[in-house]
Fold this protein.
Amino acid sequence: MGSIFKPSTTVVQAPSQSSTSYDIPEYFKEIQERTLRTAENVFSQPYTAYTGQRIAQLDPSEIQAENIYKNQIIPQSGQLANIANQTFDTATAQAYANPYENQVISGALTDLGEAYGQSRKAMGAQAIGAGAFGGSRQGIENVLGQERYLDSVADTSARLRQAGFESGANRFMADRAAQMGGATTQLGALQSASQGLQAFGQSARGIEQAGLAEGYRDFIEEREYPAGQIRQMVGALSGAPIRSYGEERSGSVGTPVAGPSIFGQAAGAALAGAQFLSDIRLKKDIKLVGKSPKGIKIYNFKYLGDDKTYQGVMAHQVPQASTPNQFGYLMVDYSKLDVEFKEV
């Protein structure tokens, strides 16, 4: 059975027997063990749900704007429509014409009556002077005078009533225009106030929402940070320099077929484009062999506890591509450089 660092083997019967051993640098064993312990601790933690507020509530200014719209603007719009629909009908004409008729028409008819009375007295005096008082001629004159009086009364009354109607209509139109102007001005002021409150409230709510979103992002980053660090480390360890040694003996069977180790399975699930440990503290036999097209120094080196030679960079010389892992060793993301990490 394999360990967490060595793959398990299955022995297949064959004419010869062979065995394979694996040599993992000591510093990698320590890092692997710490990574697995950390992973086990993280995996054992229960899921932490976010319990904070995520959606900002309506701002008080937005609520006030809504109340103005429902309780004042809508009723005011209805009132304005009612004013616009008013017509100068019989009832309205009566209300506007009554004062005019009472004051002007009544006075004019009184004046006509007085004039007619004086005219009759004058006609009576003339008849007496002519010796015709009480005669047929006087009777005819009285009848004619009365007809002229009635015609004059009818004509005067009609003209005054028409004038009163027109005057009432004009005053009605002026009153309606004044009412519509006042209602329109008030409606405009209410709409302006409502829109201002709405805009202010939306701005305040937007600021609050941005703060809530930032708080949620901080929570997610904090919750996922340990797992992210483990994934990064597993990806880096997938490139660990491991040497294998084979030994063959005759006699019995034994061709070991390697299966993936636990750690190898974790490494295989690591993110693509993994970083490589490139801390100078983990290297020996360092030799400068050239520079990249962008002027980055390229070295040949060996890892401590490993005799294989690799080619790459020194992490502390490429800060733009280097980050420390949770154990304090610098790792290099070669995808950010024009240098290839390889075994030579």
Remarks:
- Residues 1-12, 244-273 have pLDDT under 50 and may be disordered.
- DSSP finds five helices and eleven strands in the chain.
